[in-house]
Amino acid sequence: MDGFIDVHHHVPSAEIAEAATQVGIPMAGAWTPETAMAAMDASGIAAAVLTPTVFVADVSDPEAAIPLHRATNDYLSGVAKRWPNRFGAFATLPLVDPDAARAELDRAIDDLGMDGVLLPSGVGPDLVGAERFDSVLAAMNERGAVIHLHPTKSHIGIPNLSPNIIDFPVETTRAIGSLLASGAFERYENLTWIMAHAGGCFPYIAGRVARSDGAEPFSTTAPRGVATYVSRMYFDVAVSCHPNAFPSLRTVTDTDHIVFGTDYPAFSREDVDEAMAFLVNEAGFTEDELDAIGSKNVQPLFPRLTAAMAAAG
């Protein structure tokens, strides 16, 4: 199969790395659009929605975050404009400063024409559902934004263990919990959420969480029941194409809310090909379901990219 649309494609480019270095955040980058498109072509991926590495999104120093996010959005949107049928772009916001984040949201959507927003699971000790970020969620809700929720390292962490091994899926789970407990899912119905990595651990514990339906705080903050809010979420399959993930995921959502993602280049091209082979040959999806997961489910979420792909044939 080919024609996949990847909603989870990171951009550790030299340009973003240079912008990070200028504000005192050492970062390396070798990603280029040309090498990315070559890898996509080899794997049968027609288009990708770009994001920076999440460690740009969770910068906790406002003086560093604001110029870094602006430079990152300038670069990502520039790539999408040059190759409009191959790339979309998620904006990244200096969430640590909500006023600046709302201003950058306006600039990214209105001036740069970006396709959605990358949000980290939190900044420092505060998860994304924290009250301090509420005005940013409200501003995105007014625009009906598509959000890619990507985990970042825990402020607690696990000694001697990279955060992407256990912290990431756990932080996604905690972020979803914070959005339920804060009432954000209930208040901001116009937001479309894509949860990275098949929702972390949340699908596995969704039944346990739902046992709190009708009790505080959920009786106030999530009155329609946990399953209702989960059913509205989209889940990408990045780093989740293995036998353990899909049984739990398929108990909380239908295949029309599962979308394709790779985590490239953190996931190598060989890793991507292996994951795609599992998805196509071993995960138990029908051909129609694979077509939906591969591209059809995501097309309505990114109308600009979808139209550019159609125009390009």
Characterization of this structure:
The protein is an alpha/beta fold. Helix content is 48%, strand content 14%. The protein has 15 helices and ten strands. Helix 5 links the parallel strand 3 (87-92) and strand 4 (116-120). The mean pLDDT is 96.
Characteristic key phrases:
single chain; 313 residues; alpha/beta; eight-stranded parallel β-sheet; 14% strand
Shape by Cα distribution:
globular
The major sheet is characterized as: 8 strands, parallel
Spatial strand order of the main sheet: 1-2-3-4-7-8-9-10
Note poorly predicted spans.
none
What is the subunit arrangement here? single chain
- Count every beta strand, where a strand is a DSSP E run of 2 or more residues: 10
* H-E string: EHHEHHEHEEEHEHHEHHHEHEHHH
- Per DSSP, what share of the residues sits in E-state strands of 2 or more residues? 5-15%
Q: Tell me, rounded to a whole number, the average pLDDT.
A: 96
Count of DSSP-assigned helices? 15
